[in-house]
Amino acid sequence: MKTVLITGATSGIGRATAIELAKHNFKLILCGRREDRLAELQAELEHRTKVHTLNFDVRKKKAVKEAIDSLPPDFSKIDVLINNAGNAHGLDPIQTGDLDDWDAMIDINVKGFLYVSHAIIPKMVEQRSGHIINIGSTAAKEVYPNGNVYCATKHAVDALNQGMRMDLNQFGIRVGGIHPGMVETEFSEVRFKGDAERAANVYKGFQPLKPEDIADIIRFVITRPYHINIADLVVMSTAQASSTIVNRII
Ligand code: NDP
Ligand code: 8X3
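That is the input. Now the predicted structure with 2-hydroxyethylsulfonic acid docked in place:
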């Protein structure tokens, strides 16, 4: 039974992935800051599979390392890392951007992503096996107005996905990026700091992706035979053609 560590498992894509993988015989390590949600999800999934939770903020490098090092023997061999934790904070033109928003996105989406990777990759190298799924975004592939810093952090994820694949190639470790378009999760509520109406408007007038759609694709990607590595995948709702072109019927 393979062990999968999912960051950002308390909500959205990460949570849906945990639920999907629990149905398919994976052992799960679920990570996030909201401990109550981790406990709830663990209780929901434990009748299907073995679940361990790790409660840490990806921005705190010591906490990340300590959490990963604290894994009990039954969970310490990580076969699949799903680097999913991340968010957008704000949607402002560059000239009026908020430095705290910029710090949050760079600290979580890039530095936190790296802290988790740094704690886990050496173990995969030692075991000469592993599979890393990096969740980027269509914002990793193109820039949209007011998306400046969020897009930059996701472009960094795209670059790191390629870099990891090159550096880890000699160890037989698979690395692939999955880049969703608009998925209806808590993402926009976080971006707009709890403004639920503004967040709901993002998904109005068309059928966006559901977190379960991405979870299904992640399950597909990590269950391919070993000689297949899905290196990069961009996934949009049918109504979306690019970050700025969405066929809304209002
Ligand atoms: P959600 O807001 O629903 O989930 C974000 C997850 O990230 C939560 O579980 C949250 O957990 C975790 N997280 C955020 N900050 C931290 C932190 N500092 N430390 C630890 N965990 C953290 O959004 P999505 O599910 O949509 O987003 C998941 C990923 O998908 C992100 O990387 C996002 O950029 C990407 N994405 C999303 C798209 C969308 O349209 N929704 C499209 C393309 C990509 P907690 O708060 O409990 O710590
Ligand atoms: C999330 C999708 O279009 O809001 O990465 O940037 S978008």
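Residues 137-139, 147, 182, 243 surround 2-hydroxyethylsulfonic acid (ligand 2) (CB under 6 Å).
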